[in-house]
Amino acid sequence: MSLTRRQVTVAAIAAxxxxxxxTGTAQAKEQRTLYIAGDSTAAQKYAxxxxxxxxxxxxxxxxxxxxxxxxxxxxxRSSKSFVDEGRLDAILGAIQPGDFLxxxxxxNDEKTADPTRYTEPWTTYQDYLRLxxxxxxxxxxxxxxxxxxERRKFDASGNAVPTHGEYPAAMRALAGEEGVALLxxxxxxxxxxxxxxVEETKRYFNWTATEQDNTHFNPPGAIAVARLVAGELxxxxxxxxxxxRRLDAEIPESWITWxxxxxx
Length: 264
Prior knowledge:
Shape: globular
Number of helices: 9
Strand order of the largest sheet: 2-1-3-4-5
Structural class: alpha/beta
Number of strands: 7
Distance between the termini: 31 Å
Helix content: 25-40%
Radius of gyration: 18 Å
């Protein structure tokens, strides 16, 4: 992994222009984009998956209109498979100085039986996350780590139970080592599920007449998690107060829409 990290960093540095005009710099600051690299919990969903909703679909409701969201999260991806499929390269080919790269992985990194996705928390998981960090920094963008949102799981006493093992701790440690802003969405979502309780949380997950999904969200759940993300972006000083909006406002579920299935 160390060689790959150097290759990514060197290539990224080579892609950054040596100097920017005053006009170009100002434009970058005014039109900053927040890129999301992640899994199905954040991803864009389409009409054939409704009412399943990724939190990335709701995040723009909480950001100023000049803070665009480019949601590259995709179902089933881990920090490893996202890189191996060239999806990080696609982001790094588009990201600009002043932009942000928000990185949330763990759900699929945990799949020990799948070598195409599995990473070990304290070694390969951190190694892959460094590729995102280095790639963003080399292009003048700011990396932001987000611990994975929690699943809906309760013990017999009604206590919300963490499900991500050592991955959140490994990400927190890496954020400290690399000096990267950390959004602790795992801890915040676990506390939210605890507050809501066993029955009320069903209204936030993709529970339908035919499916009881304790991992993916419906519109209320996606909006609630996006609110946590936006609040943390402000709290961790990644974004300024002028960049966020509606943190305490009611967001209508009708604002969530599912486009026709992607043809590409």
